[in-house]
Request: fold
Amino acid sequence: MDDTVNGASDEFIVQLEDVHKSFIMGKEAVLALRGVTLNVRRGEILCMMGPSGSGKTTLLNIIGGLDTPSRGHVIVDGENVVSLSEEKLARLRLRKMGFVFQNFNLLSNFTALENVQVPMVLLGQRDPKRARELLKLVGLGDRMHHYPSELSGGQQQRVAIARSLANDPPIIIGDEMTGDLDTATSYEVMELIARLNRERGTTIVYVTHDPRMSTFAHRVIHMRDGRLAEEQVVDAGTG
Ligand code: ADP
Ligand code: MG
Reply:
């Protein structure tokens, strides 16, 4: 296969073209994505909504390099993700992507400070000073040596956000980031995400079920049955 990236764009940090994904379950193929074409601008906050099973997580995983499409093109920050080896894909994830999940996914026997450094360690670039700065950035300067069990859900998610920034990635991917948080805490987490976008220019691609949390996006897309069903441009993000 040709390794050069035809049509890679400076304007778009993520370019998906006719992306399909099928999973084999026993004898049946589940068509999770049925031809998704989508560009994400640098510095954009993009929200994805849609019913359970419509393919949102599969799409996020493909953007994040956690999974590869069965068919179609995926370009992330100028790199053709589909043609990368496992090892190169892992490095691309560590350098370009920050991940924030619904259940925080912190390591329970590591402190906040240690958790933030995990992606640095995986890239061979441990930097405790920078990790402390990131925890201060998310408002946890006084909780650095706490274990996850000693933190509230909102605090744990802020540790996860600090961790997502460990290697200063241009993109943050969030799958139901506020799904386990109460309303006030959800707004706090989304305000933090919006601030990172404003102050650092970080591109945000996130999935939510909660229409109130979609107001932080510049654009909201709706998925149905593995396809993009509709799109709303919200402009500057009102959250
Ligand atoms: P959403 O995040 O919108 O709820 P998903 O992307 O998780 O949807 O799932 C889309 C479809 O793909 C569903 O029918 C789901 O069951 C199926 N699916 C997702 N991941 C897998 C997998 N690893 N193996 C088999 N089927 C899967
Ligand atoms: Mg999902």
